[in-house]
Specification:
The chain is mainly beta. The protein has strands at 27-29, 35-37, 41-47, 63-69, 85-90, 95-101, 106-114, 127-132, 142-148, 151-153, 156-157, 169-170, 181-188, 194-197.
């Protein structure tokens, strides 16, 4: 401007590009960054940012993610065996999707490096990851016991079930009263692995 008047062509458009990627500014987002379920695919994303915290506008960065279980006799180290199966995908939206599956319950460590196995690690890496028992799979769960007050109920065939070729079970008949019915079920995941007992 000159004496409060715009010069010819003013105002001019100016685009500010993001700077070079800085590992210290990158971050991991998503539930899979801190916990997962045994035998189930989990995921999180790596957001690539410049030194000012701006998400990059260009793609093509390379990240390597290694997930290993904690060894009872020693902390995280490169020699730990049994890494979880993991992959990193460039979604071309300047974020990088990480998918993995843990086979063992317990604490794991997530190492995130830039470029290759010899590349620099993200600050705070390796991150702690908890692998929880698998989610209950209804078809794999098993009935354990049922009580109506002090009376134990037994499973029996339901003779009044619809005739569709499928066997149905019944706990029989109880009288209407204020006594609570308590049922226990052994919860199992999709692989049939018992995880825990359901609450009564």
């Amino acid at each position: 401007m000159h004496r409060s008047a715009h010069v010819v062509g003013s105002p001019l458009r100016l685009e500010v590009a993001t700077g070079a990627m800085q590992l210290r500014a990158c971050e991991l987002v998503g539930e899979g960054r801190s916990f997962c379920h045994q035998h189930e695919k989990a995921n999180f994303r790596v957001l690539a940012k410049d030194g000012y915290g701006n998400q990059l506008t260009r793609v093509g960065e390379k990240f390597l993610v290694l997930i290993r279980p904690e060894m009872k006799d020693r902390p995280w180290c490169e020699g730990n065996e049994g890494p979880a199966d993991s992959s990193v995908r460039d979604d071309c939206d300047v974020s990088y999707a990480v998918e993995y599956t843990c086979e063992t319950i317990g604490r794991h460590y997530v190492s995130v490096r830039h470029g290759s196995a010899d590349g620099d690690e993200l600050p705070g890496s390796p991150f702690v990851l908890r692998c929880l028992p698998g989610s209950a799979h209804l078809a794999s769960c098993r009935f354990v016991a049922a009580h109506h007050g002090v009376r134990a109920l037994m499973l029996e065939r339901d003779l009044e079930a619809l005739d569709d070729g499928k066997e149905r079970l019944s706990l029989g008949t109880v009288g209407a009263c204020g006594v609570k019915l308590k049922v226990q079920v052994r919860l199992r995941d999709k692989q049939g692995v018992a995880t825990r007992m359901s609450a009564s």
